[in-house]
Design brief:
Elements (H helix, E strand, L loop, with lengths): L1 H23 L7 H40 L6 H39 L2 H7 L4 H38 L5 H11 L2 H27 L4 H34 L1
Length: 251
């Protein structure tokens, strides 16, 4: 029962922090400089790793699917398979996991270090709301940037699949791109952009929550960083299942 009480208490504290961060967006002062800086750190800093992840994921998908598609004489559907898999599922999830590993850990370690060095207490003493100053910009930045990074991952994933299809499967370029783009619908694009919005919110809030709960000095910062990455990754996968289930039911 103690585990259940602790879990409920964690959920309550997380929901309260989220509520305070959201309501803080509608109150002055608005820390736009902090928001722009976090968007640059999260977005620009993660572009390269997202590009590489998407590119090689698309290439691997084209390679792995080639044998099965050849057995059914459907190699010309490689573009469709790569595009649908990336846009619906792999693009959002892999991008979120990469961002959770890079950005979620950074947020947790930065805020954790501020907690153990009593910078958060100093901010409160000076009349600054740490939730509004530190949490809200990071939450908004991750929520806004993860969908954009997902689009980049999808694009480079399809490029990776095209290069493999062109030089390994000897598939015509126009055939690949026409089947890939024609297979995508409005619902696919909606699903591919809705998931990253939720994933970005999860990554930002989990990183902030774990960072602000840091205890135990510098060793506690390491524990908070690990906890933030693991928790965010698990919640991303769980959220992916439920969002997919809801969207499939609504179709």
């Amino acid at each position: 029962m103690s585990f259940l009480y602790q879990a409920l208490n964690e959920i309550q504290d997380f929901a309260l922090l989220s509520y305070r961060a959201m309501t803080g967006l509608f109150r002055k002062p608005r820390y736009l400089d902090d928001l722009v800086m976090q968007m640059d750190i999260i977005g620009t800093g993660s572009v390269l790793i997202v590009m590489l992840t998407g590119f090689f994921t698309g290439g691997v998908m084209a390679l792995q699917s080639a044998k099965s598609l050849k057995a059914f004489g459907a190699v010309n559907l490689t573009g469709q398979l790569v595009a649908l898999s990336l846009v619906r599922e792999l693009g959002p999830v892999l991008t979120a996991l990469m961002v959770a590993g890079r950005v979620g850990s950074g947020i947790a370690s930065q805020l954790g270090s501020m907690v153990v060095t009593q910078q958060i207490d100093a901010m409160r003493a000076l009349g600054t709301d740490p939730t509004k100053k530190l949490v809200a910009p990071r939450m908004v930045a991750t929520t806004m940037m993860v969908p954009l990074l997902t689009v980049v991952a999808d694009l480079f994933g399809m490029i990776g699949g095209w290069i493999v299809s062109l030089y390994t499967l000897r598939l015509n370029t126009s055939l690949y791109w026409s089947t890939a783009l024609r297979s995508l619908t409005y619902n696919d694009a909606l699903e591919g952009l809705l998931k990253p919005l939720v994933f970005g919110y999860i990554i930002g809030m989990v990183g902030c929550y774990c960072g602000l709960r840091t205890t135990g000095g510098t060793s506690g910062v390491g524990r908070s960083t690990t906890q933030a990455v693991v928790t965010a990754s698990i919640l991303v996968i769980i959220a992916d299942f439920f969002i997919s289930k809801v969207i499939l039911e609504l179709r």
